[in-house]
Amino acid sequence: MDPIVTAALTSFATTVATNSSKAPLEALDNLWYLALGKFNHFVEKKKADRQHALEEYKKSIAEKVLSIDENNLQEPPMSIVGPALEASKYYIEEESLREMFSNIVAASMDSSKAKTVHHSFVEIIKQLSPEDARNILLFKEAENYPIVKFINDITNGGHAVLRTNVFHGHKSDIIEGDENASSITNLSRLGIVSISYEENFTDKSRYDLYRNSTFFSFLQNAENPHGTIGLIEGIVRITPLGKDFVKVCL
Fold first, then answer.
1. Do 189 and 225 meet the contact criterion of CB atoms below 8 Å apart?
2. Taking the model in full, what pTM does it have?
3. Contact criterion met (CB below 8 Å) for 124 and 190
4. What is the CA angle 101-188-218, rounded to 5?
5. What three-state secondary structure class fits 47?
6. Pairing state of beta strands 159-166 and 227-238?
7. Measuring CA to CA, which of 1, 93, 197, 236 is 20 to 30 A from 184?
8. 125-180 pLDDT, tens per residue?
């Protein structure tokens, strides 16, 4: 056993035997440092990182506010800026989400954008992951994208859904079969995008990434005596709420 640990334990045992009140705490302090000393260093580092992120957050807001035309500058509605600042303290270290809060605060002070700032935006950001934020950026470039379900068409009729809401996002291949599925489903739940399998693109080449994917090839090569692997093609598109969210938060 480490001699320092042994010394600490011996000290504790001795003090219990002598019924001292001070020494047990000293021994416990020694053990606490041995067990959690590194954690304390970790906490200090996190504090420093958080302080740096906080300064970056303040700087970002200031730069955005300074860029607003003086004629459009207004006092921010407390119903927007209050919840935004309160919620943002839990997301300070996530740069993509921090920037979204920064944009909301600045937009609330710009009369030309104020009508577009929806009260729900703060709650939406609170429920986003960094991956969600990356996927939303795609809808700044285009309003709709292909999305698919991987299915097994059963020989005797019907089909089994093997994977649903498979969305390529920024990926060039689908390997696991569920890439971005949770993320795009969450964005749909939040009302940022809508997903439909009742319609699809007439240009079928838009679905080639899925048909030529590693996962689709894996399914096709697997033993499947009672069915045929296929796709159900769909479209995921940004909603009106999503468009406003992109204008304000990105």
1. no
2. 0.78
3. yes
4. 115
5. helix
6. unpaired
7. 93
8. 999 999 999 999 999 999 999 999 999 999 888 899 999 999 999 988 999 988 89
